[in-house]
Design a protein that fits this description.
The protein has about 190 residues and is an alpha+beta fold. The chain folds into two domains: about 5-85, Alpha-Beta Plaits (2-Layer Sandwich), CATH 3.30.70.920; about 85-170, 2-Layer Sandwich (Alpha-Beta Plaits). Helices cover about 30% and strands about 40% of the residues. It contains five helices and eight strands; from the N terminus they run E-H-E-E-H-E-E-H-E-E-H-E-H. An eight-stranded antiparallel β-barrel has the order 1-3-2-8-5-7-6-4, surrounded by five helices.
Length: about 190
């Protein structure tokens, strides 16, 4: 009997290969009904690509059906897998804006308290407790003019030791498109 689990995978690609890795990942699991890829983003941060996926099966199968496949991609330098051990208490839907991923390390015994405070924030879509180097994987979808406000709210939460934020490259494309519009109107 298998389990259903959410898994976050961070990928460090070979130099200049992150977009090829992202494209390869989107096709990697098409023939496998046990693996459902939810999101794949190339990001600016401590890794190059972040993948959110759902897996149905035994933990032993996760290695063979997911981790080994990631490592089989020639442009992948390193992956780190974070199984979700407790889903966010609530998932929020918001308007489409900038997606941000925040990996959070908490003070011992405060992980659930931090998780509960995070999901109270307007722009936090989810805050899953994960296994591995970090304690929480939070996802935010936020209008660009609210980024600093959201960051300040997160920094004020008691129990956060430190965090790492990854922003998809899409934001730079959005800013570039906006600059082109402004330049063409002048």
């Amino acid at each position: 009997m298998g389990y259903q689990m959410k898994v976050i995978v961070t990928v460090i690609a070979m130099p200049a290969a992150f977009s090829r890795v992202r494209d390869s990942i989107t096709h990697l699991f098409i023939q496998d009904p046990a693996v459902s890829v939810c999101n794949v983003h190339d990001v600016v941060g401590f890794c190059d690509v972040i993948v959110e996926l759902n897996f149905e099966g035994r933990i032993e199968e996760l290695f063979k059906r997911v981790i080994y496949r990631f490592n089989s991609l020639p442009e992948v330098n390193r992956i780190v897998t974070f199984p979700v051990i407790q889903n966010s208490p609530k998932q929020k839907a918001t308007i489409k804006a900038i997606t941000g991923y925040i990996f959070i390390s908490t003070i011992p015994l405060m992980v659930e308290s931090v998780q509960n405070e995070l999901v109270k924030l307007e722009h936090i879509v989810s805050a899953d407790i994960i296994a591995g180097e970090y304690d929480i994987f939070a996802k935010t979808i936020i209008p660009i003019n609210k980024c600093s406000e959201c960051a300040s709210q997160i920094q004020m939460i008691q129990g956060i030791k430190w965090s790492r934020t990854c922003i998809p490259h899409d934001i730079f494309r959005m800013i570039d498109d906006q600059m082109k519009i402004i330049e063409s109107s002048q």
